[in-house]
Amino acid sequence: MNKPDCKTIQSELDELMLSEDCSASALSHLTECYECREFRDKQTKLREIVGSLGTVAAPADFDFRLRSRLARENSTTSFLNRSVWSLGQKSVAATLALVILFGAVMLVRYFSNTLPQPTPELATENNKPSTSQPAKETPDQLKPKQTEPIDTIAVTPKTQPASTVSPKGIRPGSKESRKQFATVDFASTRAPVIRPEEVPTTDTVFPVDTTQQSFKVSLFDGRGNPRTISVPTVSFGSQRVLPVSNQVSPKGIW
Amino acid sequence: MNTLTTIDELGFAHALEEETIEDTTSDHALLEATRTGDQDAFGELVSRYRNQITSYIYRMTNDYDGAVDLAQETFVRVYRAADRYQRTYAFSTYIYRIATNLAISELRKRKRRKLVSLTGFFQSTDGGEAREFNPPDERPLQDTELVDTERRNAVQRAIGTLPEKYRAPLILRDVDGRSYDEIAKILETSEGTVKSRISRARGFLREKMTAYL
After folding, report:
1. In this predicted complex, what is the ipTM?
2. Residues of chain B found within 8 Å of residue A47, distances taken between Cβ atoms
């Protein structure tokens, strides 16, 4: 017999289901070829044995065990989903809060830079206090001078270098510090001395509204209730200047 | 329905197709119901396939307790993936595919653990491949039932020695009676490959089962 025919026939026999019949040509070949007949017989027996293995049944508690396992998985999954969702919510909330905070900071900085801020003229490196005659100062010296801001404490809308306190990286006297600060340190500034014979003008002293005995400030507390703070007129050991019949006259040396 | 009126004209083949479609649809319908939280629908699916899947995995792994665990894992995965299931294939194809992958993973794990096998003690001296030790049974033939039982045990052991890529198609074809097309879809390969592997698997079994054939 031709080997290719045997191969083809055996392949055909291999592919057929047990219950199926082979083709007429295969049948005719089988009647003549012992090898193919033997192959068919062994193949059929083997497939019958394998087919007799049948189905192995699952145990009786299969469903119960499966449901228990699914219930455990569901409880674990729902916990994880809740945790994940709350984590997600928290992270979103935190991100939003950071963005809002950043925006607020930027707005505050923007407005603080653009709005005019009254800063007093201060002692600078060029304006050193006089050490020779500390007590004798003429009214002229007390007048505000453009070049000597050290002797006046009149508030002028100038942006001058102000505080000695500076954040890191910003040097006092630098442009950045001029923009940053509005506080004033008068520690090294000599106070003007007003003698009794000298008639101080309103522009030589701190322009305090002296129509009232004390300076009152009304503020609202956190609950919307107004709180009035009475700030007495400050005197630094020289004299208190109060208006008397529209005149500014010294009350007396303290 | 128009389809029903044409069954008589088209013949019995179409009636079979109709029935197959109906079975498939009912499995799909049960899975759809499972998606919406219907536990009873899922229970029905489990009762339909638990024996088949357990048996299939047992034939693959030759370990009953392990097969039960893997069968449960199969159903758990079906349940978990119920939302993502698409009707591209029949449900039986889908669940058998999961079971096959789990069984093959288990077989590979065993290989990695290097379980000691008795076949290793009987390596041929010429350095050839290790063969299973099959001592000739010299006992006289006894009850036919016992013989049949012994034969089945022997073929089960023989299937257990097959390479995993030959085991699955052989079991699906000769034990479960599935078509080449179904087997190709389950194993995600071509029909030609399936036929070739089945042929080789039978050749291996013929050599191992010579005494019983």
Report:
1. 0.72
2. 174, 202
